[in-house]
Design brief:
There is one protein chain. With 181 residues, the protein is mainly alpha-helical. 64% of the residues lie in helices and 4% in strands. The chain is built from 8 helices and 2 strands.
Length: 181
C-alpha cells in the first residue's frame, strides 16, 4: 500500500493510511511543496521530517515514526538501522536521509550529519527539515554565517508554516554573527 492518491475521491486504503499516519504521532503542515511536511520536536530542537507522500507503505511509515522516537530517546543505533533500511528502499526520498542526519547529530557525528543534510538539499533544495538540520550542524561547528544562510532559506521555504524553532535558531545565529563583528 502506498500513500494517499494524488487526486480523486479517497479510497479505504487512503483513509487507513491517513489514520495510521495520524496515530504514528506525525503531523503534517502542507503548503503545496515538498518543503512543508514537518513536525516540531521541542525537547531536542529538531524539525522532524515526515515520510514523503506516496512513497512509503504503511509499515515503512510506522518504521520512520519508530526511528524518530528512537532518535529522541537517544537510541541512535536502532534509529540508524531503521533509517538505513528505509533509505535503501527509497533512496530519492528526503525524509529518511534527513532523519539520518538528525540521528548523526544526536550521536555527535557532525561530519556524517552534514553529509546527509547536504545530500538531501542537493535533490530537494527547499526541504525545510534538511535546511534546519544543516543550519544546526554549521552552528554547532561555529560557522554562524553559513548557519544564518541555511536557516534564512528554511524560513523562506517554509513561509508562514515555518516552525518557531527555526525562526529562533535564525535569530540566535544572527546574534552570534553580530557579536563576532
Amino acid at each position: 500500500m502506498s500513500g494517499p492518491p494524488v487526486s480523486g475521491r479517497p479510497r479505504r486504503a487512503h483513509l487507513r493510511w491517513l489514520r495510521a499516519f495520524a496515530l504514528s504521532g506525525t503531523g503534517v503542515a502542507l503548503a503545496g511543496c515538498a518543503s512543508a511536511p514537518l513536525r516540531l520536536i521541542e525537547p531536542n530542537d529538531f524539525v522532524q521530517p515526515t515520510p514523503d507522500a506516496g512513497l512509503f507503505r504503511l509499515s515503512e511509515t510506522r518504521s520512520m515514526a519508530s526511528a524518530w522516537q528512537a532518535i529522541l530517546a537517544g537510541d541512535v543505533k536502532d534509529a540508524l538501522g531503521r533509517l538505513g533500511k528505509l533509505h535503501a528502499i527509497r533512496p530519492s526520498a528526503a525524509a529518511p536521509q534527513t532523519a539520518l542526519g538528525y540521528a548523526h547529530v544526536r550521536a555527535g557525528d557532525l561530519e556524517r550529519a552534514e553529509a546527509a543534510f547536504l545530500a538531501v538539499l542537493a535533490r530537494h533544495p527547499r526541504y525545510v527539515p534538511a535546511l534546519a538540520g544543516a543550519g544546526l550542524v554549521f552552528r554547532r561547528r561555529g560557522d554562524a554565517e553559513t548557519a544564518v544562510e541555511l536557516l534564512r532559506r528554511a524560513v523562506e521555504a517554509g513561509g508562514p508554516a515555518t516552525p518557531a524553532v527555526v525562526r529562533r535558531r535564525l535569530g540566535e545565529a544572527k546574534l552570534e554573527v553580530a557579536e563576532k563583528h
